[in-house]
Design goal:
Elements: E1 2-5, E2 10-15, E3 22-27, E4 30-34, H1 37-42, E5 57-60, H2 62-72, H3 74-82, E6 97-102, E7 105-112, E8 115-120, E9 127-131, E10 137-139, E11 157-158
Parallel strand pairs: 5-11
Antiparallel strand pairs: 1-2, 2-3, 3-4, 4-5, 6-7, 7-8, 8-9, 9-10
Amino acid sequence: MDIAFADATDYSGSVGEGSGNVTFLVIKDSAYFKVDTNLMKLAQVNPPDCGAVCGKYVLVPPSTSSQFIGSLSLSGLINQMVNGVPSPADPGATNLFVRTTFNGQPALKATFAGGTVEVAASGPAYPLAVSDPQGDHLTFSEWNSVSPLSPPPASEVVSMTSL
């Protein structure tokens, strides 16, 4: 999973397993998926040939994309990983966080029920990394450095029926 969040409603990236990644772009409530053989395999098109629409985007209806979009939102990902973790700003939580470093950056780290959360120790307490007891791990890099996103040009969008 590699996702760039421009803000709470606009994000892009890829998700998959092995070499079978699917590339997406979400602008507000509109989800675009890049058409390639990986998307064709996921859509169970056999053989997975995308022909003339390869490299373009398909706008997926909200009824189809809502489950995917909801699970990949920044708030959704963080909630899944750290549900119930106290905020480092909570006065009662000061004993839960210990000073450490994360990739050379001063950080605060809390361990809870086998999982961890690491946040920046200076400035706003933005997340650096979270992990859960099952070994799932999210690393947040390039915080506040994603350029604004915009939908692909109309000439690069194909209809679902073209697939």
